[in-house]
Amino acid sequence: xxxxxxxxxxxxxxxxxxxxxxxxxxxxxxxxxxxxxxxxxxxxxxxxxxxxxxxxxxxxxxxxxxxxxxxxxxxxxxxxxxxxxxxxxxxxxxxxxxxxxxxxxxxxxxxxxxxxxxxxxxxxxxxxxxxxxxxxxxxxxxxxxxxxxxxxxxxxx
Length: 157
Hints:
The chain is α/β, with parallel strands linked by helices. It folds into 2 domains: about 1-115, Alpha/Beta hydrolase fold, catalytic domain (Rossmann fold, 3-Layer(aba) Sandwich); about 120-155. The chain contains 4 helices and 7 strands, in the order E-E-E-E-H-E-H-E-H-E-H. The longest helix is centred in the C-terminal third of the chain and has 17 residues, at about 135-155. The termini are far apart. The relative contact order is 0.13.
């Protein structure tokens, strides 16, 4: 695996085996992997890249076509030398990012999945609930219930 300099006007490229991944990076602070299918060519990805880089080290790769996302993500984190980065993933990289974080929880600091569909009862919505494993069962259940009820009924009140 090697990180080679970019061409004069292009982003850096990470080579893992035969796969090359172009990526953009900016900022200083905790590492965030910003995953959009089109990298920062996606308008929302570009806006988040700029905003998050004001307080974080943001790496925004463009996934190569035809790669298996979970393996690519593992190689990317390893190849860039990232230690427990936060992952912010847009569709369609949300589910592979979640799968990776469950397979290798020691390699991911946090995960945010962006779902662009509004939850209005007809379109699918997405909620990830974080539960503190150190709290007692009743507290965990109550916290999860509050978040679930709020999410499911937010647009109906």
